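[audit] Reproducing an earlier prediction to check determinism. Same input, same settings, fresh worker. If the tokens differ from the archived copy the diff job will pick it up downstream; this log only records the rerun itself.
[audit] input (350 residues):
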Amino acid sequence: MTEMLDPQDVERLLRRLPRHRPPESLWEAIQAELRAPARPVPLMRRAVRSPWLAAAAVVLALGVGALAGLYRSFAAPSHWAVLPLDGAPTVAGASLTQAGDLAAGQWLVTDSASRARIAVGRIGTAEVGPGSRVRLERGGILEHRLTLERGRLEAVIAAPPRLFFVETPSALATDLGCAYVLEVDDDGSSRLHVTAGWVELREGDGVSIVPAGLVAEVRAGQRPGTPYLPDFPEETREALQRLDAGTGTVADLDLVLGALHRPTDYVALRQLSGITLWHLLQRVAPAERGRVYRRLAALSPAPAGVTMEGILALDRPMLERWRRDLSPMWSEEAVPFPIRVVRRMWEAAM
């Protein structure tokens, strides 16, 4: 076995070892290094040392990537593709017998026997019916705009809201994520029928929000009309037009209220009737607002903070609060939650 050393012997051996002093130049070098100004740390090294800075760099990279993706998805090319469906429509005065392009400022014209389909940038399509005149105004990352001078246009759009616009002689139709048919008569009057999502019709300070399943009309020189059910009888539509124009009577309001669905009907139909009533609240004579209010409250009770007195006085915040409470009514389509979030963020930014 190995013999263990006595601790006292170890201590005596250590004392016999030679001792050395460090050179003075070593201390001088250390002091010079301490007196020297601090050298900047490279950005990447700082990012590694700072978790918050690293996280910010990641968020910035993700944001830039998302913006690049949005640009690639929604930015419209300078020329939109046009495909003849029937006959030979013309683009800028030249007959189109096969696929071609439509540039900004050019007219697409169809006669009574021709139809065409326009690719709305990269976000959808617009089918142009017979006897129509359509002009491409502009396309970009924030706006795709057409002018429908007359005729029929059927649009199907898959994009955030307020990206696609169609201007007519009587109103501006703003897509809020939808599909719709827009018709313009020779006198400039417009008729909108929304089949999915919803559309905003605007002329001056007059606005109508038209959801899937409803129709709205705009007479030339007048504000957008109240949305109504497509099966309204002709006499009821005429009564509604008079109410929108401010010349309606109690008998006209009776006709419209009689054509609307009652609280005992299917929920979806009650919702559509509620949208008509919400618009009517702001358009009937003050003496008749109470009737409209009570009918709407029976279909969809007013949310907290909204009073009858405020609505009868057309208090804007209360009206908007009730509109937001009615928001599920504005669309009958099933939209996934992430898409709804993106749409709301885009609409708020716009």
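[audit] rerun output stored. Observation attached for the diff report: The chain has a mean pLDDT of 82.
[audit] end
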